[in-house]
Amino acid sequence: METHKILFESLDKAEKHFEAGEIRLAQKLVNEVSRSMKSEGKVSNKLRHRFNFMSAQSRYFNDISSFATNPKRNEIIKEIEALIAKPHENPKKQANDIHGLQTKWQLLDQSSKPAGREQWIAFKNLTDKAWEPCAQYYEELKAIKISNAKQRENIIQTLIQYTNDHSDKWPGLIDMSRFLSKTFQNWQSYAPVLDEDFSKLKTAYQEARKPINNAIKEQENRNYKIKESLIEKVKLINDEDTQTCIQKFKKIKREYQDAGPAGKKNEPILWKKLNEAADRFFEADKALVNDELNTIKNLASELKNDDCSVHDIKNKITELNKTRKSPEFLKLQKAVKAHENKKIDEINAEKTKVYQDLLNYLETADEIHPVIHNEIFKTLKKPQYLGEKDELLKSTVKLELMAKIDIPDSDKAIKQMLALEMLQNKFSGTKTINEEIKDLLIAFINNLKSKKISVAENKLWKRVSEVLNKLAKELP
User: Fold this and answer.
1) For residue 99, with 0-12 CB atoms within 10 Å meaning exposed, 13-18 middle and 19 or more buried, which class applies?
2) Which contacts qualify for 91-96: CB closer than 8 Å, 24 or more apart?
3) How far apart are the C-alpha atoms of 146 and 152, rounded to whole Å?
4) Domain locations along the chain
5) Is residue 370 pLDDT above 80, yes or no?
6) Does the pLDDT at position 331 exceed 80?
7) Distance, CA of 409 to CA of 130 (rounded, Å)
8) Which of 84, 132, 290, 463 is 20 to 30 Å from 420 at the Cα level?
9) C-beta of residue 355 within 8 angstroms of C-beta of residue 468
10) Residue 330, pLDDT above cutoff 60
11) Stretch 43-64: mean pLDDT, rounded?
12) What is the pTM of this model?
């Protein structure tokens, strides 16, 4: 099971590399997963489906690569054919052009999927034919080949010197591998050489590399034994508490990963053995996870009932430990939040309706109201009835400014004045928005002319009612 988890993670990384345009890195991960799945044998359908999807992605990018580069290869072939049909009078220029086309061809092979066999043979045959008018230039080419041979001899000496300098105490496996990789790239850059030098240099090069390769192999074997011993340690873990077992396994796993490579062929086999030795711990842990997933499912069903106790559900959620990062847990959290918001919206809607009917409570005989703020309700019981039309308009416009509602053109002058005043008050920070709304509603009520609302007052109150809809969550 742990192996499958690692493979899923590798496929996720591959997908991110594809998205970032790092095609080679992604394809390398997909190939590694393929090898691991073959060594694993039987895998889950979910993993196989995921792998098949990513494998199709890899093939798709290969096809795209071929689609993008094949026309360029065909252009190079047409250029070779043009050189054959009309060679340069200067053999050196002819040779330079051919060499340039060969370089372009090789760069395409390095940056994308290599050319197909038929395409390569066609290119080679045409190149050989294009070289025919350059017979007199072959001497210069021969000099280049001789120079390349000398450079390759220097590389061989570098390998021999490296062995002499380090054979008493070899560097780390990774350092040696990097050194061999770097020298191989240099070796490849000095080509071609004369046919009579090719085999001799190749043999000497392989012999010079052999001691370093042997040292790498020796370190890989040593790492192999270390990793095998760590796998045996995992097999001996036998604590009653599953979490203790898992923690011990994770500690050993870190040691395993720090041990260093044990060879490309051995790594998938050892990794499989390591995770198989720990599968028994995760099986027990999986049972606990499944129990929690069932709890989440039941809580989600319970949440659908309007009379459910969100408080109780939230308390039960705090008891979940194994599934906190699961999609099911996150979905339940969102559902709880949505349920709470829905209830809040319902309460605010009811509260808004009551506030929109405030003027119906003028001179009320009731002592208290469960929704209306106490100070506003006291004002409703005994309004001052000042009859100040300008103050009524100011209260209305201020509320509209707070709600960011468009104000009629006829009130633009008072809007500018009040906006500046409100900005100054905002910086002083003396009142909260709830307090501002409360004071403005009280001012509106006190500045009515009488209990009998006039047409003009009613028109202003309709504007206030629209504000109350916008500021439902901020009502006092």
Assistant:
1) middle
2) 91/133, 91/134, 91/135, 91/136, 91/137, 92/134, 92/137, 92/140, 94/130, 94/133, 94/134, 94/137, 95/131, 95/134, 95/137, 95/140, 95/141
3) 10
4) 1-115, 290-351, 358-474
5) yes
6) yes
7) 85
8) 463
9) yes
10) yes
11) 70
12) 0.40
